[in-house]
């Protein structure tokens, strides 16, 4: 260990003095529990020098706002930084700018405490990967981790050292626009992805300058707003919370995530931002989290609208509950001094929060070198490189889900004439999807460009837009914001359609690029209609009527209700928003250079009325008695639509076929504390090499509380050559059988368990075993 003494110069009116802080420059971060103590002394040595105002400054996180190099010197935020009233900034882009701003903090503020720089680096930085819901559909943890690692490398090269990711909110409601930002509906998969993302960003080593702090969000339950409307009330039983919504946050904590962002919603009637049970009892005491907690945007101020007090009151409540850093609201900065004076908040409450933020800065090595992430030569070497883009192309293809492929319309041949039609066929700026603030929007390749590149001279590509996004211009404006515009075509709907039909008739096959534009999902993009916009449905119908084979390339940030399309269109490839290399990645799959292997991580409903519909539901006391799902009076079903969704969780086709056989358990009993092995043979019976996500589900048949009909407990993504059979094994341990009972004890109960294995959650390949109490 290399124990250095570093000196930070700071100026106090009239004289200069030196702050001496013991710094250990070789510190290696291993996990969240290991490093609290090594920094304590250093943190205390800084804390002792701070005034109350400076302490409150550390808790303040404004948005970068009007900061620009040069002008920043005189802007309001620059002034605040100089006065020590800012702890960090977020969503400021460009390393040179960040360096300038850091300089103000280090050289012009009294104590010279460096700032932390945050950003929503959600699915890549300038090189953008598929939206998180798409990424999760790859079911490939190494790949997902690598995307986060690469995002960290790019973001840190540009001065950012803290990302507001991963977003791990479980959601069973496709109306909610932010379903696009998470990993879908399942806690088991969601927890694995949460851990992979944290690992990717932090790499268990914050001493490097290409790793960054992760921030798990939105704690908690943000994905369950009433009616799917963003920011709406959440109300949920504890038993559901513990079993079905909290595990991914916990998985991120266990993986060592350094920060947590609080959600906007209330929990048990108390806004999460000021919820002591959530932020202190659960997060810190039960789960052992010792990083820092940041509010979400104006979360503190929003508590006044929730109706729990005025700004001073809610700021005090938020701090005492366990919120450490105030994003944007300036409730802490503006009111806590008064609350200290009035005895509503103690210095100890404030010190605790300040210490956590200073600790994070020490962990990042900012006291050793405030410019650690400000190497001006890095962007060119590390950002949007050919290597990163090649990886984005690969990941894009891995995320796609083949929903239908009748008569093997896909893969397409690289010959003849292909008509590419649709408002999403030639829009670079929409390819990165929502929450891609750093992306190079216009540098993404759209499908038209991708197709042309991939076919070269071998085939002719004809293109027509075919329709606008929506008949309604006002609606269209709402879903094409933040530069993700699709210029409204001045021609009439009929003219657009006619042009498309002309090229359709000249072609051998039609590729229709339809669905949602990027901003139709994401924050504050909730919907009550899950269908493709009507103008696009009409276009699709007209294309089908030409009698030519049609491939629907579907862009979406959420599960859609595409019953009619599923009935009529022979091939549907769901591509989400694949990121920077969208056009090439989609083309790779369309032509079979990549065999699709993505599987849905959220159920796709028949219609919006079925929502919420998810695979791991309970059975009810009146389940249907027939396997076909036919209507039965006085049973739990609808009179107008079946219970089953359109596509179940885990669903996704391949250009080849996989056959499952010989499901075996190593024993038909398992003792508590023991384990059993499940094995199954999977054979590639089709004409292509391909990857299959083999899925394992378990049902606890009898419980002290009711248990879901099935729960994912394992998965493996395997590559199988044509004709090849592989035996895939899973181990089930007692831990996999545990759940939270009515006392919220995490236990496994002896009894019968069913084990299902298959290609998606709707599998009936099943064996049973008994869990037997081992009384030794
Ligand atoms: C979102 C967060 C995001 C934050 C900062 C909020 O509106 O809910 O997910 O991290 O803004 O941009």
Task: Describe the protein's architecture and organization.
The protein has 776 residues and is an alpha/beta fold. Among the domains are: 391-590, Rossmann fold, CATH 3.40.50; 658-772, Sandwich (Immunoglobulin-like), CATH 2.60.40. Helix content is 29%, strand content 19%. It has a six-stranded mixed β-sheet, sandwiched between helices. The chain is globular and about 75 Å long. Residues 1-36 and 66-74 have low confidence and may be disordered. Beta-D-glucopyranose is lined by residues 91, 120, 164, 217, 296-297, 523.
Give the SSE map.
Blueprint: E1 3-12, E2 15-24, H1 36-47, H2 52-58, E3 60-61, H3 76-82, E4 88-90, H4 95-108, E5 116-119, H5 132-136, H6 141-157, E6 162-163, H7 187-202, E7 215-219, H8 238-245, H9 247-254, E8 259-262, E9 266-267, E10 270-271, H10 276-286, E11 292-294, H11 299-306, H12 311-321, E12 326-327, H13 331-341, H14 347-363, H15 378-382, H16 386-399, E13 401-405, E14 417-421, H17 447-455, E15 460-464, H18 473-478, H19 493-505, E16 509-515, H20 534-544, E17 550-555, H21 563-568, E18 571-574, H22 582-590, E19 658-665, E20 669-671, E21 675-684, E22 690-700, E23 711-720, E24 725-733, E25 739-740, E26 746-747, E27 751-758, E28 766-772
Parallel strand pairs: 3-12, 4-5, 5-6, 7-8, 8-11, 14-15, 14-16, 16-17, 17-18, 20-28
Antiparallel strand pairs: 1-2, 9-10, 13-18, 19-21, 21-24, 22-23, 22-27, 25-26, 27-28
The structure holds beta-D-glucopyranose.
List keywords for this structure.
six-stranded mixed sheet; 29% helix; Rossmann fold; five-stranded mixed sheet; 28 strands; 776 residues; alpha/beta; binds beta-D-glucopyranose; Immunoglobulin-like
